């Protein structure tokens, strides 16, 4: 078996998804390839034109509909180790008939995973004769609360990306381009235990003022502040995501002062995390520190996002999100300040909510870090 967790972990997740389906009043949910299917059964990969789907009725056993040419790959996951029912098909046959056959009789409320493409949604809806709805509320519930095995993988990812950040000061030097530094960082992400590089942002000087800047051919200058935001997936598929801000040479004192305020804001949000506190309260904890120092307008985005088998998932730590935090939720805390045409800074850790606070998965110091000039 090639899944990262033992079969009983997936059995628990599937049982929970079934129970949540029933609780939500849905008759059945249909889960296509994507993060939800990876989470529930260890089946990786994206949607292809040939339909693969996990059909979970509110009562009864799940069925996996799969093209025969994908069968051995799918059997090599929790689908095989748990002995789930399989309905396979070959080109020329009708996979949607198999989906219908796996459903309870005359279903009224059908939930579809949000990664299922229109290519498959429309034929399923046509046969049902009722309008399907999103299974997101059901599927989100399981994925949002990480179990011990998942937290261990997120910890592993956090330690791996910390090891990369510890190498960054030696790679960032005046005279090198962002692109050259990013290539070295990408190699370090793999060398430190990730199976894939998900993103590498090296935003130097004025490029740091653009939160979405990735890399460019800009040559790093003495006196630059550089935002380095990096992440990858460890072999289990769980992701890292961490940002630190580096100084090449001696930064301007006012810049250093503002970054010290940002470090305080980030820590205030980390300190605010505990069960029962809402996502928007955590966002406000960071925002209030910046606003009090006249930097509120420079903070252009939400404070954080959930992380797991994807790098952006629920819960979103944002203004207006009244979701109360619960033990096992994992998300980033990443306030930033951006001064167009000048510079920017962001500090990001991944935290996991514990019974009375949170565990910070990133241990590299937050302060502006001196890099080789
Ligand atoms: Zn964004
Ligand atoms: Zn990031
Ligand atoms: Zn992030």
Identify the notable features of this structure and list them briefly.
373 residues; alpha/beta; Creatine Amidinohydrolase, Chain A, domain 1; Creatine Amidinohydrolase; 6-stranded mixed β-sheet; 4-stranded mixed β-sheet; 11 helices; 17 strands; binds zinc ion
State the helicity in percent bands. 25-40%
Please give the largest β-sheet.
6 strands, mixed
| Percent strand | 15-25%
CATH fold topology of the largest domain: Creatine Amidinohydrolase
The CATH homologous superfamily of the largest domain:
Creatinase/methionine aminopeptidase superfamily
Total domains, how many? 2
Rg, alpha carbons: 23 Å
Hetero ligands: zinc ion
Per CATH, which architecture of the largest domain?
Alpha-Beta Complex
Overall average pLDDT: 96
Description:
- It is built from eleven helices and 17 strands.
- A hairpin with an 8-residue loop joins strand 8 and strand 9 (242-248).
- The mean pLDDT is 96.
- With 373 residues, it is an alpha/beta fold.
- It has two domains: 7-143, Creatinase/prolidase N-terminal domain (Creatine Amidinohydrolase, Chain A, domain 1, 3-Layer(aba) Sandwich); 148-371, Creatine Amidinohydrolase.
- The longest helix has 24 residues, at 148-171.
- Helix 8 packs across helix 9 (178-191) and helix 10 (253-272) runs antiparallel to helix 11.
- The chain is elongated, with a radius of gyration of 23 Å.
- The strands form five sheets. It has a six-stranded mixed β-sheet with strand order 4-3-2-1-5-6. It has a four-stranded mixed β-sheet with strand order 7-8-9-17, covered by helices on one side.
